[in-house]
């Protein structure tokens, strides 16, 4: 049994492909770890705000303004409570949706989720398994689109910086490409491997 944090960031509600793929990942995790608890966080409907000056100040204040820091504290606590994190990541204008970026900004806390050692930064969010459910209109894992494949490398690099180095990406891609889109979801779901 595992604690799963399931993060969604689609603008398309139930029609979302990243959510469909994320749901399939959750199902397969449940098969491997029956009785797992899923804590769902829809960043778009929760309307996670951009990082504001008062929040940034509170992050570095010795005695922080509790009201300003409370959302960040809640999101960090929720993250630390998870054994497995599933992130629905639709491709929006070549990158992640800004709500997902806002979540990343709120969970990135010096001295809490990362620190500095003699040899540079040290991620403190360790021991987690992360699965990314990507969805995109085009194809970015190979071919001409690969030059613009920013989402998977960014999430790998940044979540790795915070200590989440065990990360696997599954892609539903080419969802708007005739001849590819017809098989895209089936291919994505079949690619899911829970290790
Ligand atoms: C505002 C917007 C921007 C998009 N930008 C891109 C893009 O840059 N590249 C791409 O391949 N698809 C793009 N798409 C298509 C989405 O990646 C595709 O619809 C995907 O299924 C969205 O994920 P979702 O179904 O989980 O919402 C965009 C879609 C929207 C609504």
Polypeptide structure, described:
The model has no long low-confidence stretch (mean pLDDT 97). This protein has a five-stranded parallel sheet with strand order 2-1-3-6-7. A two-stranded antiparallel ribbon has the order 4-5. It has one domain (3-190): Rossmann fold (3-Layer(aba) Sandwich), CATH 3.40.50. It has 195 residues and is an alpha/beta fold. The chain has helices at residues 17-32, 53-60, 66-80, 98-107, 151-161, 181-190; strands spanning 3-8, 37-42, 84-90, 114-117, 120-123, 129-136, 166-173.
Structure summary, number of beta strands: 7
Q: How much helical structure, as a percent, in the residues? A: 25-40%
What is the CATH domain class?
Alpha Beta
What fold name stands as the CATH topology?
Rossmann fold
Give the second-level CATH assignment, the architecture.
3-Layer(aba) Sandwich
Largest sheet: 5 strands, parallel
- The figure for the number of domains is 1
Structural classification:
alpha/beta
The CATH homologous superfamily is termed Flavodoxin domain
Unreliable stretches? none
Which molecules other than protein and nucleic acid are bound?
Answer: flavin mononucleotide
Radius of gyration: 17 Å
Series of H and E elements? EHEHHEHEEEHEH
Helix tally equals: 6
Mean pLDDT, rounded to whole units? 97
Tell me the strand percentage band: 15-25%
Distance between the amino and carboxyl termini: 14 Å
Query: Spatial order of the strands in the main sheet?
Result: 2-1-3-6-7
Envelope shape: globular
């Amino acid at each position: 049994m595992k604690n799963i944090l399931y993060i969604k960031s689609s603008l398309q509600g139930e029609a979302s492909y990243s959510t469909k793929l994320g749901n399939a990942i959750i199902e397969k995790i449940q098969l491997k770890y029956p009785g797992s608890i899923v804590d769902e966080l829809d960043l778009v409907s929760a309307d996670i705000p951009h990082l504001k000056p008062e929040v940034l100040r509170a992050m570095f204040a010795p005695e922080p303004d509790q009201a300003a820091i409370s959302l960040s504290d809640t999101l960090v606590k929720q993250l630390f409570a998870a054994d497995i994190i599933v992130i629905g990541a639709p491709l929006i204008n070549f990158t992640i949706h800004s709500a997902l970026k806002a979540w990343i900004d709120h969970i990135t806390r010096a001295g809490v989720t990362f620190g500095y050692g003699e040899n540079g930064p040290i991620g403190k969010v360790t021991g987690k398994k992360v699965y990314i459910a990507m969805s995109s209109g085009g194809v970015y894992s190979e071919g001409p689109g690969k030059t613009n494949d920013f989402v998977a490398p960014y999430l790998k690099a940044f979540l790795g910086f915070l200590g989440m180095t065990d990360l696997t990406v599954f892609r539903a891609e080419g969802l708007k490409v005739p001849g590819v889109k017809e098989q895209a979801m089936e291919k994505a779901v079949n690619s899911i491997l829970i290790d």
